[in-house]
Amino acid sequence: MKEKEFYTDIVESFRKNHIRYQSSYDDLIDKFGSTIRQFPDLVNRKLVDSNVLISLGKYVSFLGNEEAQIALLLEKNDVLKTVYLRLNAHLGEETFVGDWYTVEQASVDQFALVTGDQQWIHTSPDRAKKESPYRTTIAHGFLTLALIPLLTDSVDPEKNIYPEARMVVNYGLNSVVFPFPIKIGKRIRAHARITKLVPMKRGLEVVREIKIEIENSTRPACIAETVVRLYF
After folding, report:
1. Following CA atoms 85, 230, 211, 160 in sequence, which dihedral angle do they give, to the nearest 10 degrees?
2. Which range marks the domain in which residue 29 is found?
3. Are residues 195 and 88 in the same domain?
4. Cys staple from 118: which of 34, 73, 112, 143, with CB 3.0 to 4.6 Å?
């Protein structure tokens, strides 16, 4: 293998594994010393004598600099830059409070039928009135979760909060908890705030904290950290 290719492979290995190291020569020696000593003597001398480690240090230092990476991505995509700056201006702020939505028994029954979860605490009002500590049926936690797109207007084409995106993908959830149950007939609504923005080569990852409020309750029905990806 040629020297240039050998060094390139090392750099690529660092990049793929997202290893973050300082650029100073001494720090790199400390961090890579044990690995370097395993290399053949000839290669080891070339690495040290030719200051390759210093060059590698500058390269991986850049890879570890999140602000530098973001700036580079934003400069390459004007649409990404526009959306990122608009959303970042309100990072951490509550930017959405939805309309009230009443949870009806019919919706719970339909969800139970589709999912197969027909436990009596959800589907039997008479039994729940007698045996449940809530004295009524309650909504499934996962029904609450499934209502988030509706409660946040994410499925309303006339209320598109990401009009620049050619495609919006529901990427997943970082965390979900259900602190308090929703009794049938109660009204709920969503509160949302953006907690993190991650620029990508072809788009932007948006992380939002969604809290589902129950009317006249101090405890929320659900707190979820949702992740969507916008593609431009």
Report:
1. 90
2. 3-64
3. yes
4. 112
Residue located via tokens 């660092």: 14
Look at the chain and report how many structural domains it folds into.
Answer: 2
Q: Answer yes or no: is 117 within a domain.
A: no
- Record the pTM: 0.70
Q: Are residues 55 and 32 in the same domain?
A: yes
pLDDT in tens, 145-203: 999 999 999 988 888 999 999 999 999 999 999 999 999 999 999 999 999 999 998 89
Residues 15 and 106 in one domain: no
β-bridge mates for residue 223, sequence order: 177, 211
CB atoms within 10 A of CB 77: 18
pLDDT for 69-118, tens place per residue? Answer: 788 888 888 999 999 999 999 999 999 999 999 999 999 999 999 999 99
